[in-house]
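During the no-cost extension, the postdoctoral fellow (Dr. R.K.) reprocessed legacy sequence entries with the updated structure-token encoder. One reprocessed record is reproduced below for audit purposes.
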Amino acid sequence: MVWRQNAHVSDVHRHPREIGVAHAVTPLELFFDLVFVFALTQVTTLMADDLTWLGLLRGFAVLAAIWWAWVGFSWLTNSIRIDDDVSSRLVMLVTMAIMLVVGLAAPQAFGTYSILFGAAYLAVRLLHLALYAVTTRSDPDVFGAVLRLAPGMVASPLLILAAGFAPQGGWRAALWVLALIIDFVTPVIAGPGGWRIDAPHFTERHGLIIIIALGESVVALGVSAAGEPLTAQVVAAAVLGVIVVAAMWWLYFDVVAVVAERRLASLTGRAQTAMARDSYSYIHLFMVFGIVLTALGLKKTLIDIGDPLKAVADVALFGGVALYLLAHVAFRLRNIGTLNVQRLVLAVVLLALIPVGLVVSAQVSLTILTALLVALVAYEALRFRGMRHAIRLHEGDLH
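Re-encoded structure tokens follow.
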């Protein structure tokens, strides 16, 4: 009798829609993000198999499309607690399966599997839009914001699918470019009105995707090392690669993530939404692409440890970390309006070192990169130790 009564209560409250209620990242969200681990790995595979400048551009395009799909769900689950509702939970799990197909097709998104990629990607985006519309229909503000985005959310994946039917070359590339422009411009045109941000959840979710991307770099290192004889050179390079990834992790999570969350939480209304959109949906894309490029560079370094890196791999290694640092500079500028001089200087130095990587061995390039990142981390930890301590104790802010 007690069980039946409880079951009845459960049925009555079967579809809770908690808009704007603070909550931590849920197990379902973490589980959902696993498909993006695979998708990020596949983007690296795409570029590794087509180690050309065009291959890098295609890699960025596929990553941007996958990123925008993930961004959509990060905003959705920031508005509602999906895993409290069985039907919504099932939609998320179905989306995971389709997203896996997107990842499987990603290395040939411009080639053999372009139609499969486009069809699966369209299905993911339509499921997201439908779930968003259904779960927010009782909230006029959020529902209205979703409707303003809907035309772009449908048009962009349709264009990517259409690109699969277009001849390879100019037309296919043009449709992809147009699709990405529509995706990234639509939120600016629609405006920031109507949304409400749960800042701790939002920043935690994006921090976790940074960890996923960094983890993909470690996986790339491990896979590359596993395919080589474990000589002293290979082992040393693998260790240096982990130090590079650890330094990138440190640069984001030691202070930057803490200050950014506090800044976002201090805002309200349209200003908060605009900050979330610019700092996380846009700028974090370039952080993630910088990490993916670095993973590509590390992968190629382990394969050609004793020889100079080829031009594209060299750009990926030094340029990937430089892009990551430049995204940090933009992130700080957007959040608190100040310039991180030391990270900007190191980014410029790394770009200037690209020609050096073409003449010295890959191991020397990796050693130089590791030393510079360790020096940056040490400089910031010592130079700003008082400020860092205050920030991490929630007593200060970054100036």
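The chain is about 80% helix and 0% strand. The two ends are 62 Å apart (CA to CA). The remaining legacy entries will be reprocessed before the final report is submitted.
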